C-alpha cells in the first residue's frame, strides 16, 4: 500500500510542478516584442524538424518562429539564394511565422570579424537585408550567436565592432530586422558582458540553453537579471534536452523540461523561446545529445503539448481551412537485381533502404516508398524528405520517380515484381562522407494523386557507378524515417476589406500637365484623377472576387451623361503624388481597364451610395496583386480618366471622413504567399495614436502635422530612441522640415502621442 501512495504522490508533484504559475511578463516596447506574451519557435535550419513539430502540436499551438542559419561570408548571390530558400518555405506555412536567423562570422573555429569590418562581405550582408526587407515580415537575426562560446573564438573587441557594423548595414537597408545579441551560459556574467555591443545596437537579448547543468547555473540567472536592468526582452535562441533526450519519458521530463519551463515561468523578462526538435543521435558531431524530438515519446509529447496550451504562449493564428501533414511511409523497401531479383529485402534488411547503380549484375539497388494520403485534398505544397548516409568520397545524386501503381507491399516487393516508374520528379543530392536530409518538391505529383488513397515514389541512382547510398527506412529505430510533408486547405478563405485615402497627397488631379494635391474635390470628366490607397492587405496571388471605389458626392445636381475609364498603376508599390509635371499621366498603367459608362446622376452633395460607386474593378486589382513583387501591405494607385460629363467627389482635403474608399473581397487558399504581416498580428506595442495626424507618410522633405490638444513640443527620435531634434509648435498645425535627416524610419513624439514615419527620397 505504501508503494502505491509514493507513486501517486510522485505523479501528483510532477503534475503540479508542470502547472506552476507563470509570472506576468515584463514589457519593454522592443522591436517585435509581444505584449504580455511569449513567442514560441522551433527549427534549426532543417525544414522537416519544424514541419513535423508543427504537425504534432496542432493548429492551436502552431509555432511563431522558425530558426535557420547563414554565414556572413556568403556573396550576394549565395546570400540571396539562402534567404529565398527559407523564406519560400516559411511562406508555405500560415501567415505570421517569422524567421529567427543565426548569422555567424566564424569559420572552422576562427573568427573573421576583421573581414566584416573591412567591408569584404558588405555585398552579401546588404543583399541579405534587402531580401528580408522586400519580404516584409518581422525578422530576428542573432548576429554572431553564442558570442562568448570558445568554439566560436570571437575576441570581445572585434566581435562588438562587427556586431555594430552589421547592425548599421541592416538598419540602412531594412526596417523589419530586430537585432539579437546571443550568449551561452558557459562563462560568467562579466565575461558575457565584455561582448556586449551596447543598448543602441541591440533590440533583444538571447541565451542558448542545452545541458541540464546550464539550467541551474548562476550564469543563466545572472544574465536574465542583467537583461531586466537594460530593459531588453530575452529570447531563448536555441534549446533542447541535450544529453537527456526524450526516450526516458517522465524521467526525461523531470530531468530537463521541468527546470527549463520553470526558468521561463519565473523570469518575466523571457519573451520568446526556440526549441530544436532534432534527433542528435544521427549527428556526426553530437550524437551524445540523443533524440530530442518531442513527438518520439508519448509522455514527453503529451506534457509538452499541455505546457504550450497555456495562454501566455503566442502561437500563429492558423486559418480554419489550413492543414499540415508530416506523413511517414506506410510501406518502404529496396530491391536488388541479378541473382537477388526474387529476394524480399524488407524482411532481410528492414532498417534501411539502399540505392546503387552498378555495372555488375546483382549489385544494383532501387528503393520504393509509399504514403497514405487518404483524406487530403486541395494540396498547396508537398515535399518528400529522406535521410541519406553517404560513406563515399563524392556526392551522390539520386533521381526520384513517380510510381502510379500503389498496389505493391513492402512484404512482397522484389526486383521482379517492382512497379513501373513514371516521370522523373528531380534529383536529390547527398553530400560526400555525410549523413543528411535530402528533399524534393513534389507538389504537382501529389496534388494530382489525391484522388486515390496512396502515393508512391521510386529512388534510383542513374548516375555514377558503384556508389552506395543508405537511406533510413520507416522501421529505423534511432534514425530518421522518410516524410512526406503536405500543406493543404479544405477550401478557400473569403476576406473582405476596405482602405480609405488617409493623406492629402494621396488623391490628386492633373489638368493639362499641372498637378493639384490639395483640392477639396476630384473633378471627373474635367481632369485626370489619381487615388492612392496605402497598406492594402491583399496577399500576393489572392483571387479578387469583387472590388470598387466608393466616392462621396461633393456637389448637387450633377446629372449630365458621363462615362470614364479606370486603370491602375502597374507597379509593385505605388508612391504618393507630387507636384512634378504630369505626375499622374506619366505613370505606367495596367493592361486591364474598366469602363465606367452611363454614370448615374449625383443629385446631392454628401451622397455616398451605389450611384457614387464604380463598377467592379477586380480585373485591375487582380493584375496588380499578381505582380511578382506585390506583397500584402503595399500601396496601389487607381486613375479615373474621361472627358464626358462631370462628377465631383470629395477628397481627403475636402473631408477626411468622406475621402475615396477602396472596398474589396478576395479568396485566398491556405499557404498563399501573403508576405507582409502587420505588427498587430504578433501583438507588438503600437506606436500609432489616432489623435496625432502626420502626412504625407512616407515623407520626402516636409510633412504637415496636426497636433492633439495640449501638445506643442515635438521630438523626433530614431528607432533606437535617440533624440535627433526638438521643435516648439506655435499652433496645432505645423509644417516640419526633415531635409537634415537621412532616409529611414523615425518616431515623432509629442506630449501625449507618438507616431512612426518614414523618410523616403
Question: Would you kindly provide a written description of the structure presented here, covering whatever features stand out?
Answer:
It is a single chain. This protein is α+β, with helices and mostly antiparallel strands. The chain contains 14 helices and 40 strands. The strands form 9 sheets. It has an 8-stranded parallel beta barrel with strand order 1-2-3-6-7-8-9-10, surrounded by 6 helices. Helix 3 (76-91) runs parallel beside helix 5, helix 5 (122-135) packs across helix 6 (156-173) and helix 10 (250-266) packs parallel to helix 11 (298-308). The longest helix is centred in the N-terminal third of the chain and has 18 residues, at 156-173. Mean pLDDT is 87; it is low at 1-19 and 669-690.
Topology:
Elements: H1 2-18, E1 38-43, H2 47-57, E2 65-71, H3 76-91, E3 98-104, E4 106-107, E5 110-111, H4 113-117, H5 122-135, E6 139-143, H6 156-173, E7 177-183, H7 189-193, E8 204-209, H8 212-215, H9 218-229, E9 234-239, H10 250-266, E10 270-275, H11 298-308, E11 313-314, E12 322-327, E13 331-336, H12 345-348, E14 352-356, E15 365-372, E16 379-390, E17 396-403, E18 424-430, E19 434-441, H13 443-449, E20 454-460, E21 468-472, E22 483-489, E23 492-500, E24 507-510, E25 515-516, E26 521-524, E27 528-536, E28 543-550, E29 563-569, E30 589-596, H14 618-625, E31 634-644, E32 647-650, E33 661-669, E34 693-695, E35 702-706, E36 713-718, E37 723-728, E38 733-737, E39 744-749, E40 754-759
Parallel strand pairs: 1-2, 1-10, 1-11, 2-3, 3-6, 6-7, 7-8, 8-9, 9-10
Antiparallel strand pairs: 4-5, 12-22, 13-15, 14-21, 15-20, 16-19, 16-21, 16-22, 17-18, 17-20, 23-33, 24-25, 24-27, 26-32, 27-31, 28-33, 29-30, 29-31, 34-35, 35-38, 36-37, 36-39, 39-40
Helix pairs in contact: 3-5, 5-6, 10-11
